[in-house]
Amino acid sequence: MRDRQKKRVQTVALGGLTVALGVTVLYFASILPTGKLALCAVAGVLPFFTAIKAGLPASFLTYAATAVLGFLLLPDLSVTFLYSLFLGLYTPVKAVFEKWLHNPIACWAAKLAFFCAMLSILLFGVKAVLPLPERLLENTAVLYGACAALFIVYDLALSGLIHFTVTKYRALFK
Fold first, then answer.
1. How far apart are CA 82 and CA 3, in angstroms?
2. Longest Cα pair distance anywhere in the chain, in angstroms?
């Protein structure tokens, strides 16, 4: 009983620290003139640590709490939309896809479908809230293709980071 309670306390503390760090990184992304995408990507990797240590439900809660606090506290909503619609959500979703879809082709198809859905929401749903340049939406096929290529690079880099972290620092995740 005591170990179970200790595990719950550790999970809550890890989630709280991860949320605080995520909101801090997103705040810097919203006030710094450059590096918004990179800092959002860094904040998006943080739910991975919660997933490894506390499980997927805790990872989704970490993502959700960071997104909600981002909408409430951050001065730049574009950073919050980017985090909440893709970069923050993708890490736990990637874990779900890779856990349940054992066929690599099905896994990549699901990841790309998720990416295209989130990109569509980001481009066309957020357009009502945030002004987007009209030139951005002129050639959507090129835009989707270029963004999909960047997504594949991001996914491979994220997989490499996860593999490196888990193998190098295995003792921390026990």
1. 38
2. 60
Say how many CA atoms lie within 13 Å of 1 toward its Cβ: 0
Residues of the chain with pLDDT under 50: none
Q: Show me where the domains of the chain are located.
A: 2-173
pLDDT at residue 156, as a whole number: 94
From the list 167, 124, 164, the residue with the least C-alpha distance to 144 is 124
Q: Which stretches within 32-82 are classed as H helix?
A: 36-54, 56-73, 77-82
pTM above 0.70, yes or no: yes
Q: Residue 123's closest CA among 136, 110, 139?
A: 136
The residue to which tokens 């998720």 are assigned: 114
3-state secondary structure 86-148: HHHHHHHHHHHHHHHCCCHHHHHHHHHHHHHHHHHHHHHHHHHCCCCCHHHHCCHHHHHHHHH
